[in-house]
Amino acid sequence: MNTSAVAVMASLVLLLPVAGALFNALAGPRLPRAAVNLAGTLSILAAFVVACIMLAMVVGAPAGAKSATAHLWQWIDLGSGGLSVGVDITLDPLSAVMLMVITGVGFLIHLYSVGYMEHDPGIARFFSYMNLFIFSMLLLVLAGDLLILIIGWALVALSSYLLIGFWYERPSAVVAARKAFVTQVIGDVALVIAAFLIVLHVGTLSLPGIFAASGSFASGGLLVTGICSLLAIGAFAKSAQFPLHTWLPDAMEGPTPVSALIHAATMVTAGVYLIARFHPLFDRAPVAQGMVACVGIGTAVMAGVIALSQVDIKRVIAYSTMSQIGLMIFAVGIGAYSAAMFHLAAHAVFKALLFMAAGNVIHALHDEQDIRLMGGLSATMRNTERCFLSGTFALAGIPLFVGFFSKEGLLGFGLTNGPGALPWILYIVGLGINVLTGLYAFRLWATVFRGEPQTARVYAAHEAPPVMLGPVAILAALSAGLGVVLAIWALFIHENMLNGVFTSFLAPVFTSPNSGPVAIDLGLGAAVLAAIAGTLASLFGAGMAARIWLQRNPDASVITARLPRALPQLSYNKFYFDEIYDALLVRPALGLATAARKVVEPRVMDGWVRAVGDACSELGAWARDYQTGLIRDYASYMIAAAGVFVVLTIVLVSR
Amino acid sequence: MINAGDTFPFLLALAAFLFSVGALGVLIRRNPIVVFMCIELMLNAVNIVFVGYGRFLNSEEGQVFAFMVIVVAAAEVVVGLALITQVFRIGRELDVDDLDEMSE
Question: With contacts defined as CB-CB under 8 Å, which chain B residues touch A635?
Fold first, then answer.
């Protein structure tokens, strides 16, 4: 690829959202609503068009030249042998996939926001933040230098903070925003330390430079394991993985389009991108990889269990997001990078869809989010329900929907990679996750749209306007059709139909000469068997959900009564993580602060500060007595001083 | 011809006497014009010392300094007399003890 063309295109795709953000921040509040909406959405549409051209550039590039790094300008240069940081842009198949997800899904969500935020007075601020987020995310995925990546990484946390706290009059939103930001900063710190370690060893922060030097890391050595563990901690904080996951459900305080864009489709998957991007290092650190895989699958199970008992429609979807990202993290942990990226893209489509359909419901019920007060909405919101079902089917991995291809491919991949019996154990856990996913996905649909209406508001609900229904419908069509299209395409160019298109497209990234052993593809027979087993598990979960929540036979409460009593309690209270962190971290910190306020400040700090102040004022009071305003007094002081001076001189000279 | 060294101590004594008279006048008189004249007296006592030392040490620098002092004194008189005139114009009594607002 021509690097100057890459530089021009990348600058365009980065500057368009910045222009939108600046325009709405500076001029938006004084302009009519239509102009604000137009600026906010058109800037992302234009970025999407540029991103499509960039994708075409990658597809059209000859094999072996799929990756290009453009050098925009030199930022830091500490001379020969010192650190040198350039503002570099890397365009390769991996960043191209992310570009499409960010700008494509991002544009649809911006369009949807026009309807969802129709009555909000802060619309200019909203679009300004949203465009800023798109810019930050694009910077993150296009960065050709670790320092630039970290800047994008921190900027998405900032925009996430601003958007979670968008309704700043609500104390809960402000607290949630702060919690999200603080948690992400933990990840930022880990990432920065990893960058320091990399500089110490390799001497450069440029991503191609790091990967070219990855061979110099001792395979399985302490250094590379430490770097990868730190990178993984950064990824866990960003992607809401155990133990840094508690911010994501609280982040649902933000407006629903924000949840769809940042906390489902793009930002929370940045951790997956980071690990996939740094695969040459992770391939050399099996211990870190194993840790990542275990955390991923553990979070997937935990979040799935929690999602079963939550009653807030957005929190259910948030926990399902956490669970699905757990699967992606698991996949990058076992080296199935292409499968993880495929699931990332598919998940962006169907999870944004689910969030926006849920937004339609919340909008129609005037900000009601408790699913126990919904029910029977299919009568009034037929189109929204159809779209929601498309997302639910994809989430549960029902065959022919896009989630089926991505998730079964991802789980099947685990079968062929890993030591001893571990793949089989992980696969069985994966089947369990399929059952859980089917259960909570269909529980949500059944309680919201089916059954008897639980409140009078449901009867007054009306279908969403076209500007909100349109983006949802487009995503619903993608969610239903994208997998089939890719599978048919894959059948002609690649024998493995599960994730063939993604695997062959991303292969140049993940099979560079310096990367470690590539995960082994499944054979066609094993793939089909894995797909059948996974589908049966999903269908089993979906069927159980239908029996419990659709037909109410048996009643849901009978089921929970039969389980060990601790399990529903743990699930409903989210395994008490918030309470544990509160007791372990928040309360000691608050206690320390209170002690400092009550003891250290008045006794220690104030003591000497006050003493200095008192001494000054006493000195002043003493000096004030000598300022009489009488010239003769001043003259006599002068003459007295002169007399003293004369006497002193005589004494000193005569000595 | 009287030797310069013989009269020099008397010159210093005269200067000391004039300076003391001036300083005393500044301290005890209340009329600003008189205080002013006393200040002039002190300056001229210093001038005598400068000129006397100049002759005693056979150097022109003493006379140069005396001229300097005369010029500065002239400038000072201009400012001081202007102030006194203004104080008189706004109807205040000419009494240095009365002009103590700046101490507040």
Answer: 23, 26-27
